[in-house]
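[step 3/7] fold_predict: job queued, chain A
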Amino acid sequence: MGLLDDVVKGVGEVTKQVGEGISKIQNKTQEAVQSMGIENQVRALEAKKSVALTNLGKLVYDKYEKGDEVGEDVLKRKVGEIVEIEREIDIAKTELTAVKQANDPDIAQSQKAENRAGYARTPGFCCPHCQAPANQEKLFCAFCGGELKSQKSEPTPPPPENSSDSSGSAS
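[step 4/7] structure written:
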């Protein structure tokens, strides 16, 4: 019976390995499908941004070359739309990075935990204490615990209005 027990044990090991392999394949397939969906979303947003930039350029051209009446408020609104599209692209790219890192064995567990918790770094912003990429909206660095508040950009106050304009001159 020793031979039969060895065969059964061997089959059990092979079955376990096959199951683990199938699980890895399923995870990679799910990651690929999610990645492709997000990449398509980024491409669609970039196309939308390109159209918005083209429209903005046409408005500026028409204003200066053809003398069309295009108000600054219209131009500012169009620029705001483009900025919002860029923000959406950044969010999608951050999500794509998180999906790709979720099953990457070379990514640190702390990074995976950040991704699961929804922690997003602000592009180009680093902790002043440890120089790790950080989120500008957070008060403290996720890596070293250092204070980030002092590095936040404070809103600039509006320029003072000219007091001679509002001091009783009739319009």
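[step 5/7] annotate
Residues 10-119 form one domain.
The mean pLDDT is 80.
exit 0
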